[in-house]
Amino acid sequence: MSAQSQSAVPTAASAAEPDARPQSFDDLARSLGVRSLTLNREETMAEAGTPLDRPLVQAAAVAVLRNPWIGTGPDADLAPETEAIAPVLAKVLTDRLLAAIGPATAVEAFGKAAVVGTAGELEHAGALIHTPFFGNIMRELLEGTSVLCFADGRAAASASIRVPMWHKTHATSRDHYQSIDVRLPDAPQPDEICVIAAAANGPRPFARIGDRRTDGTVTTDILKGLLP
């Protein structure tokens, strides 16, 4: 047996060594600083006392992670960490949305949000959701084409955020303009960021205010004559 072929044979010791690499995207998220992953799911059965033909299911998946830019200045390059972290967040959060709602074909509306802790910059929150490294991954996994509507901000722990959503392929479909409220009981800590992905399986209950395809022409002329 040649020396080369001998070196290719695993020893008992090497075979017993565990693979230190992440074995799942959840493991990878943990290695990138994610502290917790949670899912909020709401199912609306009736509106104004009237049952819906189909329950409206809304879900929001939340990742709480260590802010990788704490201690850096406003001139720091955010790209390396964004490119490493944002796609993994998009994957693990979208997986949870699909588990809550069903296959991508069942998802009709989507949105995103990020909240940075008090020791971070607003740009730190934006970096994790406002680039293709998050948006393109979430959009592809949910089979959407629309730009993702969003909310972002800075808050102390126990914050609440209202995450907006609209249609995943027809952003001007007014029926699908909706939101889900997300409570963050212990986050973000000053050195953390919360990243949220949201989705719904349909429009608002009993939506009936039309959209841009049915709107007439409206200008400031309608204000004329309203006052003496």
From TrEMBL:
InterPro entries documented for this protein: AA_synth_put, BB2672
Region ranges (Disordered): 1-24
SUPFAM superfamilies, sorted: BB2672-like (SSF160519)
Coiled coil residues, start to end: none
TM region(s), chain numbering: none
Gene3D superfamilies recorded: BB2672 (3.30.1330.110)
Name listed for the protein in its UniProt record: Peptide synthase
Species this chain originates from: Brevibacterium casei S18
